[in-house]
Amino acid sequence: MMSLASDSSEAAAVSLCASWPCKRHAPSQCCWGMLAAAEVHWGPVPRWTAENIDQLWLFVIGIGKEHLLHFSMEAFQAVLPHLAALHNGHQLDPFLATAVVDAAKRHWGAKISRWTIAKLQWLGPFTVHLSVQDLSAVDTDDLLVLLPDISNLHFDKRQGHAIINSLISSQDWTWSLEQFKSLGKLAAYLTVEQLKNLPPEVFSDREVQKSMVANTAGRGREVKEVAKRIVEDMGDPSTWSGEDLTRIGKVASGLEVKDLEKIPKSSIRTAVADLSKADLSPRQRMVIAQKYREASSNRTSKRLSSRDIRELKSLSVGLGSNVFAEMSPDDVKESINVLAENAAELQPTQKREIVRQV
User: Fold this and answer.
1) Which helix (H) or strand (E) holds 39?
2) Which ranges carry the Stereocilin LRR domain (predicted)?
3) b/e sequence 22-54, b meaning 16+ C-beta within 10 Å
């Protein structure tokens, strides 16, 4: 590729760019060679135009931080959509993604508060690489305009809080179902106080419930508040069906033990696969495992089988040691993989019975 720079004409270089046989971006070695050739034919990087960038689009994966910092503003803004496509496809080096923000500050100014809405939109997915201070400096009205574009980006918790705090400070912000939905993935960063401000219609919306379950993890105060509001919407847990419990999914980790104790045992058994994915406390696991066992007591054999343990998965640690003692040795052996995966959560008495059976 380097010989191209010395032996070929500009037309040949451009022709090769346009006719590259692979529909994906070219290999890195070829990219570096083509970029070197481009410097020979088009001159130093600061002289490159937006047209030049468009001709090189297959090879932008080879662009480095020095290119970004020395591009003209026209060329920099032209390369952003190509780099954004690589970023969205997880093909861009994280170091270069951060360099895009550094270059943007060089071209557009270090103070984010002075950027126009157009520049913020040009930044696109690279918005996730802005610091908390940068995000807090974005004009609130501009954030509202940007929300459809950034609501499904993966910000960290501190960034998410900064964006939400800025949004809700706007006079145009009202806590409604429509506004909540506009937050997209950012809704996962709402604080307990903000969750309490949400109207009941938010928690009764099936689409919202599904999103909350998908973005919920742990047993923190926020999860408990979400669970509390869902219980208020769904009513007495003693009336919940297996489908209701499946819909709650991982949010079950935020339920009070007294609520879990009210849920029909048949519903627990139906939804056990979803409940096993929740980050439950030892006490919650014990209640669910006991109800599962009670739901199985109508069978010919009251002993749990290896199939039961495989269904319970992590919930099996909530079973009493006597349950393992009652199981047949063959069933214990067939369950050993599940039990081994959760060995750290098992009590010494449970382990002794399992080992005795094996």
Assistant:
1) helix 28-42
2) 110-331
3) eeebbeeebbbbbbebbeebbeebeebebebbe
Structural tokens at position 280: 């439950």
Length of the chain (residues): 358
pLDDT exceeds 90 at position 167: yes
Q: Which two tokens stand for residue 110?
A: 């270090």
* pLDDT value, residue 358: 82
Distances from the Cα of 4 to the Cα of 44, 56, 60, 303, angstroms:
17, 15, 18, 76
Q: What confidence tens digit (pLDDT) does each residue in 125-157 have?
A: 999 999 999 999 999 999 999 999 999 999 999
- Amino acid identity, position 37: A
Token representation of residue 283: 């006490």
Cα 236 to Cα 229, 297, 325: the distances in Å are 12, 25, 36
Q: Is 88 strand, coil or helix? A: helix
For 302, phi then psi, to 5°, come to -85, -10
Query: What gap in Å lies between CA 352 and CA 85, rounded to an integer?
Result: 55
Sequence-distant (6+) residues with CB within 8 A of 316 are: 289, 309, 335, 338, 339, 342
- Closest CA relative to residue 46, chosen from 55, 54, 38: 38
